[in-house]
């Protein structure tokens, strides 16, 4: 159910399937968390912006799942991956499943994830698989916007009032232990990297850190310690206890009527 | 006398079908009525996000989730657009939002009903957006330019929402027995509240005559309600759904559907604040507003600092 | 799915089934809300007390469901009622499904529901159906304890500190619109009352109000207006939006594997 | 010399197998070690409520829901009982709880792993309670009376919990393919952390020798671990579950199961605070404590007022 099979047993298709699922799960789960803001944002413009970003993520996920089931070639529908996997089968990064918290926490997460996504998508745009490449390129502009949007809010909140500064600092301190996993890679990544189908996260780690440090400093925030303990496990299906509750809500209706068509 | 003359001229412009623009002279009461209507309309978009937003996380397919998320986002956009249009009349967004949060301003009562099943999302798209379109198609010819233009744009998107809603209704009505039961139950719960969306009977609607005289509205509540019924009864029958009204029958002579009497006690109760969800809706909006206070303050303070340092630099 | 059929079409068994379901749903849902406190109580003793009361409620519900399916005679299991009905099929009072809130809100609800339950169970103990009667009698002692427990906390919080007084007052103000429904009855109640199988809630309304007023006054609290607008609908399956989320969590696993046996 | 003599006497009592009671003389270090052990034990019961509590609302049958709720309630009761027993040594409940919340005190590291599926609840009952019982059966013969008596009582309930857990494990192992997969996955995730519950190897366990000398413990970590493995491998095989240890094999000569090496890096990491759930567990406890502050204050203030008015009355 959970334990990742080693790459030796995996064909290239299987490795790519797993790689796509990982990317898709991150975006689906984070999109879900963002969608929880809908109707509850601090200003109407942010209700729109967050819903928009949520929609981008879920759209990215949909495209990635679709390609994954195509590669798998067993006639599954993308919704099968969304609605009929349990949490130990989900491979998203833990950072994406944490509860939405206050607006500061949401912004801190958005900024960190968007910084990572920006470099990831930039490099994935050169991947040697036309269809995969096409999906990534189509979304890169949105990813750029996500980074801009969240970066601006980091500056506003960090260098805004005393309260906003403190809240955002707490948010970064709280979430920091989850950013190590952004750069996690294992034999699946390595295997695909050899084929030019995956990105080496090490190759942009320094750049990514740089933009994070530079932004936090500009926002007058203290940069937490990059060398502190970092949580991992998401890629093996070893999640926090939050994901199960998220999935219960997300899947309840669909699982209640497995034979029904909802389009 | 001056004022009387102005009003006469104003009424003549209206009667000629001219469009009134923000800088034009207009009677204070015209302005007030429009602020009331337009801000109510804006609030309805915002509060209307809640019952539908309630199902985003539980949508039964990725496609439906995206459609719903996109729809709710559109509603936020409509709200924003309508608040801006209202500002052309001199009513600031903050003022009208305060009126909503302190309970002075109204919003469409339909959003004081809860969404209890996914079928409600389908039915809201079909019936509630369907009713809104009938109203808004009329308002797109409203005498006040910014309102009319907002309506044209909004109407286009809502037609799309209605189409998506009806498609969902049709899918469920053609689905498993459970889906059929679910969708019929949703129709049963939403039909009457939707009819109430058009407001009281003409004789009980104090503002109607005035709004028609001023070319804001061009049809009465009962006329609008009748066209809604005519269209939607047909659409219900097409997909095999029943309308929960034992008195419903087709009048061959008039070509209209005759329908039963609305429960006006329920209508006035909900308007007064005693609907199933009134208090919760306002509480939710208030909470969002209060929780967002520090964010808005931070944004203002940051903008102030930025401006200051730009000024210093120049 | 939702709309209650009128008593004319109902046999006595069907009416009793519905009556039992209503009683059971109240206790299951309130038990669920209380169980959410587990591990999060303000003091260890209350963690134990609330878990204990939750267990009582869920136990009562289990007995009532069991009797209901027995009367129904279609071979259903009590769990079918718990896990395979949707929110429009649940008949619990709205007051039971509201989120748990802070400890003050939980105590306000417990006190109001326990006052009602106390009189209800007292009278139900004389019902002319041996098995039903047995279930009720078995639980009446627990119901007495629930009332005592919540009443003591109303006094402590109401007449405690300024903060606790204010919090509890707010809780009562907030929840008040849901207490009218405690005394709701319709043709199902009336039909069964004729057979001596149900209690007329009117018969103890005054007593119940009396204990509520007396307790709130002793706790130095303002008694909210009994004549304000009162929410109804639960008995017809017309719930708040909270119940659906509660059920998604409660039913997700069971519905995911409808053929599995969990005992 | 006085102190030395006392200690000798004390050791003689221990060696004779006498039970030490709260009012008896005891070496300060004995007292401190017991406070540490017993409060850790109490904290473990309290923190242990969280991973299991996580599934109460999602239990797949009413019966299982009640069993779980009742189990978690028992754990709260054990916590209470152990805090009281610790108080006999002069350490107030508030003090030891503060130590937990500010991170000074430890609790069993097993509770720093998350419960990801319902099968985890079954496996915790079987393996974690199974391990606890082996430890507690020994502690029930501990030299400190209140601790030993607490253990007797707790052990009885935990045996019941283990029985219920194993029954659940057996049901799932005998269930649908999905249930079988789920339960095997849970065993895979919990097996090694459970082995770690017995602590480091004897040679790395600084307290062990002393605790044995004082009759608090009567077996070493490795001895306890071995009896756990012997018993639970058998139980796993009975219901057709695999133990995720390729090195596991039965030694016919010794009659014991030989098992692979524990990942001690993981062990020390989790102990240091870097387990999957350490921070969240403490945060949850802290939040409960902070959110409960006004309640505890109110109860105190009310009690004060009551006492005052009683005094006045008399």
Describe the structure.
Chains B, D: This is 1,2-phenylacetyl-CoA epoxidase subunit A. Chains B, D: Keywords: Oxidoreductase. The complex is a heterotetramer, with 2 copies of chain A (263 residues) and 2 copies of chain B (314 residues). By secondary structure, chain A is mostly helical. Chain A has helices at 12-35, 44-72, 78-83, 94-97, 103-124, 130-158, 162-175, 187-194, 202-218, 242-256. Chain A contains 10 helices and no strands. Chain A is globular. Chain B is mainly alpha-helical. Chain B has 12 helices and 2 strands, in the order H-H-H-H-H-H-H-H-H-E-E-H-H-H. In chain B, strand 1 (249-251) and strand 2 (256-258) form a beta hairpin. In chain B, helix 2 (28-53) runs antiparallel to helix 3, helix 3 (62-87) runs antiparallel to helix 6 and helix 5 (118-139) crosses helix 9 (221-238). The longest helix of chain B has 29 residues, at 145-173. Chains in contact: A-B, A-C, A-D, B-C, C-D.
Q: Gap between N and C termini of chain B, in Å?
A: 53 Å
Largest sheet of chain A: none
Gap between N and C termini of chain A, in Å?
28 Å
The number of strands of chain A is 0
In a few lines, what is going on in this structure?
Chains B, D: Its EC number is 1.14.13.149. Chains B, D: Residues 1-24 are annotated as: Disordered. By secondary structure, chain A is mainly α.
Keywords:
heterotetramer; A: 64% helix; B: 314 residues; mainly alpha; two-stranded antiparallel sheet; 68% helix; Phenylacetate-CoA oxygenase subunit PaaC (chains A, C); PaaC (chains A, C); phenylacetyl-CoA 1,2-epoxidase activity (chains A, C); EC 1.14.13.149 (chains A, C)
